[in-house]
Amino acid sequence: MTAATHSTLFPQVPESADAVLDGLDPEQRAVATALTGPVCVLAGAGTGKTRAITHRIAYGVRAGILPPASVLAVTFTNRAAGEMRGRLRQLGAGGVQARTFHSAALRQLQYFWPKVVGGDLPRLLERKIQLVAEAAARCRIRLDRNELRDVTSEIEWAKVTQTVPADYPAAVAKTLRDAPRDAAEIGQIYAMYEQLKRDRSVIDFEDVLLLTVGILQDRHDIADQIRRQYQHFVVDEYQDVSPLQQRLLELWLGDRDSLCVVGDASQTIYSFTGATPDHLLNFRTRHPGATVVKLVRDYRSTPQVVHLANGLLSQARGRAAEHRLELISQRDPGPEPAYTEYADEPAEAEGTARRIRDLIAAGVPAGEIAVLYRINAQSEVYEQALADAGVPYQLRGAERFFERAEVREAGVALRGAARAGGNDTLLDDAEDLPSQVRAVLSTKGWTSEPPAGSGAVRDRWESLASLVRLAEDFARAKPGASLSDLVAELDERAAAQHAPTVQGVTLASLHSAKGLEWDAVFLVGLTEGMMPITYAKTDEQVEEERRLLYVGVTRARLHLSLSWALSRAPGGRASRRPTRFLNGLRPGSAAPGARGAGGGGGVERGSGSTGRRKRRGPVLCRVCGKTLTDAGEMKLMRCEDCPSDMDEALYERLREWRSDQAKELGQPAYCVFTDKTLMAIAEAVPGSEGELAGISGVGGRKLERFGADVLAICAGQELGEGDEED
Fold it and tell me: How far apart are CA 296 and CA 95, in angstroms?
């Protein structure tokens, strides 16, 4: 059996209709030969759904059952439509139309508009955001740029759910939707936006669908003409159709049933845009005689990855979960998914970068590796870690962190405040560096509490909050640092992350990874509050977050790594918990509702030097025996007030060595070792790599990089010039 998701670059066109069926598995063949009546294909991730439906169309065309011009294949992105057209040409069915809903509707609208209305079709508004801004201004409602993006998205949601301006507030209340502004205000802006479009004779992309629906409902002669043209329909990703797209599909069909839909309710992750799996789940109710085929043979992922994917869905609840598919891997066994717990986010990013570097060294192309996270603001620490490790990367679906508009604006504001120094009244009440940064960024939209819900406003806040956290970490590592020092640090980080890349590791959000796949996938930041995201309040929203993680898992072909950090910053309180979605699935965790930990094995700890699992018991002061809770004291293994047996001369030599190393590396001193780690080394005076590795803050990478120097200094040896250059 050939793999379902890969083909040769220039395959030969099959010689006959029967040859089109060669290489299909039994279920794919059942799809390809089901050419009459309604057909519903429930296709799991990696099961070759595009292969199945393109072979179905090609087989029907080559067998003379489906005239090419009578078939309309509809999907959701231009990329998917282009791929479908390419495959159909390779199979000898080049005359079939494969389009997005919008593309197909626009073509019909342009053709019939002169006949129905007269004159040319109104100009299509490429970007509606400027007109929404004008509508808000006319309503005397002030919107910043991010609120403007969110309100524009709300208008799009209202239109695809066929909600008119007057009904918008009630629709928000009914669906428990998190509106970015007062619903009445958005309804007012929405109404003014529609008025401005009418006054200027322009339409937007949603109008293309709405107007086509209106014409087909009112003009039966035109509806009949389209139905004579297109008699057979195929809809891919059917779980993502909106109510408006479903209505258009129904009007195209009329009273016929020559429809084939393909989808997977477990991959519904865009409900915030109006997508709903209900039409897929209700298909057999609307079409009682439908042929239903389930594709469950997974050609993409190893049995180990598939086992985890199935386990995630086995815990799901709700209507979509009732229709989940149990995937069966068709690949040879591979490595088990790796679960890694790190002390903090920088350690997680560094550990991820180290593993990626190892994979590349082992022969995995950088372009076949991806790091996937929940929100784009998480990218910065991974951009930094990969840049530090010399690993090329590329961002998908988002700008690099330091290229984002809000981050650039924040940098300008911080630079101006640094130049003004004590003359900036904004900093009058700011006593330390973090409070100075918070004061400056508060003028750019940062607040101590995050805004409710998701959207552009939340994205902007997350970016600014990342800068605030970075300032807190910087001040903790360099207590005497000034605002100018921080600005210099930001400039260095930006320079390191702006190196041009051609072939690199993909950094992407889970949403933008849909439809893609890689040999190796790293799912990072898997903690409660991020997965599921904090603002997922209802059961339905939480279940969509579970499906989002499922989509992430099923992107991996061979290598899969899942990780989380117990605290945000080094030395922070380890208060975070791994995502509930992995309970009962990761080794050593309890199944949902179970008491205590179930299963054997354990989670790898990301300290780097050993594979042994660390005890989680209390840390005791080695002097007085008191339980330690402060992160700094835990690093030293003693209370701050207890007498220290630190070798002061050794500590100073270590500090001098660290300063030289930091200058050579072009990094802050804390990136080599923190002050607390140097103190711990000077107290312990390790005599071997094992003893040095046992000190908190000395990970595997730092042991490899600096261990020889540190041990030499501890032994009282002088470092030679060659050693310093090394």
Answer: 30
3-state secondary structure of 260: strand
The two three-digit tokens of residue 42, written as one number: 């429930």
Would you state the structure tokens that stand for residue 532, as one six-digit string? 């599921």
Q: Answer whether residue 246 shows pLDDT above 60.
A: yes
Residue listed under structure tokens 């090394």: 726
Q: Which residue has the higher pLDDT, 397 or 520?
A: 520
Alpha carbons 358 and 256: distance in angstroms, whole number: 57
Instruction: Return d(Cα 128, Cα 289) in angstroms, integer.
Output: 43
Asked if residue 10 has pLDDT above 70, the reply is no
**Closest C-alpha among 524, 461, 467 to residue 494:** 467
% of the chain with per-residue pLDDT over 90: 37
Angle between helix axes 433-441 and 456-477 (nearest 10 degrees) is: 160
Determine the residue type at 681: I
Residue where the block lists tokens 């060294």 = 361
* CA distance linking residue 346 with residue 339, whole number of Å: 17
| 195 has pLDDT over 50 | yes
Measured in whole angstroms, the distance separating CA 524 from the mean position of its chain's CA atoms is: 10
Terminal CA-CA length for the chain: 53
Give the pair of three-digit tokens for residue 44: 């799991």
Secondary structure class of 490 (helix, strand, coil): helix
368 vs 504: CA distance, rounded Å: 8
Residue bearing tokens 């695809």: 160
Across 531-544, b (16+ Cβ under 10 Å) vs e yields bbbeebeeeebbbb
340: helix, strand or coil: strand
Tell me the pLDDT tens digit for each residue of 522-572.
999 999 999 998 878 888 889 999 999 999 999 999 999 999 999 888 887
Residues 54-93: pLDDT tens digits? Answer: 999 999 998 889 899 999 999 988 878 888 888 888 888 8
Closest CA to 240 of 207, 273, 208, 283: 273
Closest CA relative to residue 524, chosen from 409, 353, 281, 644: 353
Q: Which residues pair with 203 in a beta bridge?
A: 124
Selected residue with higher pLDDT from 666 and 574:
574
How open is the CA angle 698-700-706, to the nearest 5 degrees?
65
Q: Which residues contact 433 (CB under 8 A, 6 or more apart)?
A: 471, 474, 475, 481, 482, 483, 486
Give the C-alpha separation, 721 to 529, whole Å.
50
H or E element in which residue 235 lies: strand 232-235
Alpha helix stretches (DSSP H) within 34-182: 49-62, 78-90, 101-116, 129-138, 145-160, 168-175
Cis peptide before 532 (omega within 30 of 0): yes
Does the pTM surpass 0.70? The reply is no
pLDDT digits (tens, 9 = 90+) for 399-452: 566 777 788 888 888 888 888 776 666 676 777 888 888 888 888 877 877 776
Categorize the per-residue pLDDT at 301 as very low, low, confident or very high, splitting at 50, 70 and 90.
very high
| Model confidence at 311: pLDDT above 90 | yes
- Coil, helix or strand for 367? helix
For CA atoms 77, 82, 85, 87, the dihedral sign is negative
* 484-522 per-position pLDDT tens digit: 888 888 877 676 554 444 468 999 999 988 888 999 999
- Residue 155 contacts residue 132 (beta carbons within 8 Å): yes
Q: What is the DSSP letter of 67?
A: -
Closest C-alpha among 197, 237, 211 to residue 106: 211
| Strand, coil or helix: 210 | helix
* Rounded Cα–Cα distance for residues 74 and 110 (Å): 18
CA distance 68 to 50: 18
Chain centroid to CA 149: 19
Yes or no: say if 539 and 414 are a contact pair by the CB < 8 Å rule: no
Q: How far is CA 273 from CA 141, 191, 514, 703, in A?
A: 24, 20, 15, 48
Cα–Cα distance between 481 and 468 in angstroms, integer?
Answer: 15
